[in-house]
Structure formats: structure tokens, C-alpha cells
Amino acid sequence: MKRLVGVTLGILTAFGGFVDIGDLVANAVVGSRFGMSLAWVVVVGIIGICVFAEMSGRIAAVSQRPVFDLVRERMGPRAGLVNLGASFFINVLTLAAEIGGAALALELVTGLNYLLWVPPVALVAWLVMWRVKFDTMERVFGLAGLALVVFLVALWQLGPDWGALTTQLVRPPQDEGVPTYLYYAIALLGGAMTPYEVFFFSSGGVEEKWTRKDLVTARANVFVGFPLGGVLSLTIAACAATVFMPVAAEPDSLGQMVLPVAEGLGRIGLGVVILGVFAATFGATLETALSSGYSLSQYFGWQWGKYVAPGRAARFHVTVLASVIVATALILTTIDPIKVTEYSLVFSAAALPLTYLPVLMIANDPDYMGEKVNGRFSNLLGSFYMVLLLVVALAAIPLMLATKAGQ
Amino acid sequence: MSEPARVLHARLHLLDRQVVRESDDRLLCKVDDLEVRPGDRPYVTAILSGPLALGPRLGGLPGWLMTETDRLFRGEERPGPYRIEMSAVTEIGSAVRVAGHRQDLALERWLTRNVVSRIPGAAGTQEQDAPDDGGREAPENALRVRERREDRPGTMRLAGLLGRTVRGPSGEVAGNTVDVRLVQDGPLLAEVQQAFRPAGLLIARRRAGRLFGYERGPGLWRPSLLGALVRRMHGEIRYAEWDQIESYDDEEITLRVAWDRLRTTADL
Question: How is chain A split into domains, by residue range?
């Protein structure tokens, strides 16, 4: 149990990237339309986020510098500002979607329209960020998110045709066009590697006062949290492929997306999965709202973080509060939260290289890292992913326009 | 002097780093720019921060918006950027640590007083900082570059030397400045601490962009793909000693010697 508590930062961060509201639905949609033929993208995403989260966690432990400090320091004020603008925009959009997602989970339980739940969810989320200690917050929502493991149990209970799932791995369905396939591939990769994950993860490491002694903790967080998030996202796709694909249905809401669990495990399973969905989306709400404060403060050099009293980090807390207010207003316009994340995922794919390039550079800088610089393997993977991310960044927006966002 | 003076590259090691207050690890600001006292042996006098230091570096509409908004809300007639004397710097590493009881920047103090302290549960707003212990006035000196409206008289900003076109003695374009090499052998600032002196310029043949640290020896070109790419984009990189500079202004820098006679970075 003690070991598990030590990796809740990784779990909370990863769930915010892999199984937040946009990905929950996107995974189910992808599963029902493409079967398991996009599973390889998730695997590529898991490895990619592990490589860069490990570097950023190691940098945070050795030098106490979180990711946006590195962006500003290595890329300079201009490119840093471009990245800040893009990341902040994505953060607030995603924050709006996550607040909506947590409210949708409450609608599933209570039957009350989700718009009624939006203001209380936003208020409680802000109170948590204002007053609750970082490690308490991370433990409660990281552990509660583990309820989503019920998808694994449900998949096993559904008894899918494993042979068919395996064939789907290498054979995309014939009735979908190549651009649409690639568009979803980019959306999945963007979801797996969203920049706010490393902002939150490395800042969380600083909040927890990691030092060189905690390098093992940092690694454990990365190599437990992110693969677990990735496996869950694959499981959700597999459940959808089993239940929806044979009847050619496409889930388009949270209520439909949890149906495979209800079919496999009945009412109790449904209760657990809704708890998991709520915890994951609420956790992602905290992650994106704090990330907006972290990135802005770290760009300008302001005091940030929950490790100081709220009154000692005024600009940081005002930023967080303002982001929550703007995001709440946005979601109250009745804009569809799931649509919002679909767009923000693609924009985030376009912003990826500017975030991961300075991480890769500084992980190699002996002035920062001493003897803890990247090994050859990390550099090989890191360089490969930089090329990949560059291609993805260039292709993301043209593909979105060409496929009308995957329709 | 027993040990060799410390050498830093301004853009790589100092600019845009986090400034941390030594006494309580509080994050104060970024090194948005450096104040330099020009002359035959110029030296760095202070760290400049805040919108009035960052804005001019950003340039364009965002930079203009940043400086003008700041001026609008500052009551003073000639508001200057937030300034930390170099003599207060105790350590330059992944962060720059400074001694003394420096106040926070104006925006933090205003938000603490007028917004955050009014929200219930705002612990910590009562901990007021001691007033700024300020800094000694830099001695005045003849101007060599056009000073900004808010700068201290007789000073210039280090970022003004970056990204400039460099010309050789016969007026041909030699390259662009990519970094400024600082050597800690300037005049004494505090009893034991010498000032950093701009000792020369790193000049790239092709591009004015950042070198990301890949100007250092090939042993540090990692990952190798990235190092090779950045070096290739910049073309050949050479080093001009300070006394090889004929003149400099806001637009261009003119050298006394031709490109071929400059030192290569391999000698550094």
C-alpha cells in the first residue's frame, strides 16, 4: 500500500492524459469504428510519454526546475511565449471539457442535467486547489481513478473473441478512409502525449520536494502510472470493439461509453465505473487548472505552487482561479465538452515539439544534470520521437480540416 | 589570482533563468535582461526583470503591449525595470540565487493585497516582506548606445548585443551575434566578488537564432542528431574578442578584423 501511495502522482498525471473525458469517449469511438487497429498508436504514445516524463522527472529531481522553466530557458522568450500561448489555450479548453465531463458523470448518477452540476464541480475543484495539500489531493484522486480498472474486469467478463481482436491489430477496417484513420491516430497520440502531463508531473515533483534521492520514486511514478493509463485506454477500446462494432453502433456520449461495463458486470460494475469516470475527469480538472497556473508562472518567474501558503503565491492562485472561471463560463454556453477536447487534442499535437525539445536538450546538459545526463538509449528514443512529433505537428491541422475532424 | 576566472555564456547560462531568494527559496523573477556599464572594459552591473525588461526582448506587438501596460499602471514618471545588483548574486546554476530581503514585483504585492487576501482561507498574506534594500547607484558614464527611456543613465542592456548583424572592417556582412561570452574578471562588486565582463561575442555565419548550448565542445553535442542539426543551421561559428570590436549600436556591430582572422570556437 505504501508503494502504491508513492506513485499516485504518476497515476493522477497519466489518467489525466489517457483516460480524461476526451480520451474516454475517443477511445470508445475508435474501438467501435476501427476495432483494435489503432492500438499501436497508443503503444507508441505510452513509450513516448514515458521517455519524456522520465526525463522531466529526472530534471525536476536533480535541479528542481519544472518543464516550463526549461522551455523559457532554452527556447528563449519568443518561442517560449508561442508555446505558452498554445499550451495555455489548450489547458483552458481541456479544463472546460473536464469540468463538463465530471458534471456528466454526476448526471449519470443523479439524472439531473449536467449543466446544473457544472458550477458546483468547478467550485469544489477550485476549493481543492486553494486549500488541500498537494500530496493529499494527489492520493485521493489518483487512487479513486483506479476504479476504472473495472474496464479490465468487464472485458474479461464479456469474453470477447480474442482471435478477432488480435486480427484487428494489423487490419484496419476497409470502409474508413486513410485520412480519417490518420486523423484518429494523431488525436490518440496527442491525447497520450499532451503537454500538460509533463507540466503537471514535473511541477508535482517540485511540489513534493524531490531531490536526487527520489530519482527512484520519479522513475516508479513514470513506469507505473503511464503504462497503466495506456492499458486502460486500450481496454476501453477493446470493450467498445467487442460490444459496439458487431452492431455497427458508435458511442457518442459518456452514458453509452460505459455500457460495455454494465453489460459485463451489471449494476455494481456500472456504479464503480461511474465513480472511476468522475475521479478521472475531476483529477484531470485539477491537472489542467494547475497546469495553466504552473505554465504561466514558470514562464514569468512568479512564485508558484501549493508548497507555499496560498497567500504567498498570489499571481499563481489568481491565474488558477481565472482559468476555472473562464472554463466554467465556456462550458455553461452548452458547448459539447466532448467536441471541445477533440479539437484541443489536435491543437496540442501541433504544440508538442516546442515542449519536448527543451526537455530533451536539458536532459543532456551536464551543467544541469551532472552525471545524471541521458543515456544513449534515452537519446535514441528521444531523437526518434522529436522527428515523429514534428511530422505529427505539421500534419495535425491539415488532417483535421481535410477530414472535417474525423467525420 | 589563483584560480582561473569563471566563464559563462550570457544567453545559455544567465538569461531566462529563475531568480531565487537565498534566505527562503522564494521564486522572485526571471533574468529577463542584464544591465551592462559600457566603456573600454564593460561589465555587468545588475539583473533586470519584469515587463519593462522582458517586453523589449520580445519585441513586436506582444512586447509593446507588455511594456505599455506596465507603464500605464506604474505611477512613476520614468519607471524602470525591477533591478537586482550583481553583487547580491550568490550562486549561478540551474537557478540564480540572490541574497538580501528583496521585495516581490509590484503585481504580486498588488494581487496579494487586493485579491488574494480577500478570499477566505488565504493563509500567508500577512507575511510581509521587508522593504527592498535597494542597490548602490551605478556611476554615470558617457553614453555609447541610445539609452531606453527608463534605463539608468550610462547603462545598456546585454540583450541588445544579441541577434545583431556583424560587419567586417570593409563593411561586408560577417554573420550574426548568437551569444556573449562573460568572464568573471571585471572590477570588484562586493568585497570578494568580481564582476562579469563581456569578453567577446560568439558570431554565427548564417543564422541569428539560438545555439542551445551546442556552441560548446563536440563532447556536449547530445543528442548527436540535434547537435549536428543546430550546428549545421548556424554555419561556422567564430569568436570575436571585445577589443576586436570597432563599434556597436542598436542595429549593427562592426569588427576591426576580418572574419578569417577571428578565433574559431575550437580554441575556446
Answer: 2-402
For residues B7, B10, B16, B18, the Cα torsion angle rounded to the nearest 10 degrees is 20
* Cβ within 8 Å, pair A361-B226: yes
Architecture of domain B161-267: Roll (2.30)
Alpha-carbon gap, residue B224 to A359, rounded angstroms:
15
Instruction: List Cβ neighbours of A275 (8 Å cut-off, separation of 6 or more).
Output: A144, A147
Distance from the Cα of A21 to chain B's closest Cα (Å) equals 30
ipTM at complex level: 0.90
How would you classify the pairing of strands B252-255 and B165-167?
parallel
CB atoms A314 and B212 under 8 Å: no
**Identity of the amino acid at A135:** D
Which stretches of chain A drop beneath a pLDDT of 70?
A: 1-2
Query: Quick check: A130 and B119 CB within 8 A?
Result: yes
pLDDT at site A83: 92
Nearest to A317 among B26, B57, B116 (CB): B116
Q: Does A318 touch chain B (CB under 8 A)?
A: yes
Cell 515533483 found at = A205
Question: Which CATH code is given to the segment(s) A2-402?
Answer: 1.10.4160.10
What does DSSP assign to residue A238?
H
What are the extents of the domains in chain B?
7-118, 161-267
> Cα–Cα distance between B126 and B111 in angstroms, integer?
13
Instruction: Name residue A247's amino acid.
Output: V
- Contact criterion met (CB below 8 Å) for A277 and A253: no
Instruction: Tell me what the pLDDT averaged over chain B comes to.
Output: 84
CATH of span B7-118: 2.30.30.240
Mean pLDDT of B241-248: 90
Instruction: Note whether A371 contacts B: Cβ–Cβ < 8 A.
Output: no
A149 or B264: which leads in pLDDT: A149
Chain B's closest residue to A304, CA to CA, is: B27
User: Do B121 and A380 count as a contact with CB atoms less than 8 A apart?
Assistant: no
Per-residue pLDDT tens digits for B70-122: 988 887 777 889 999 999 999 999 999 999 888 888 888 889 888 998 888 88
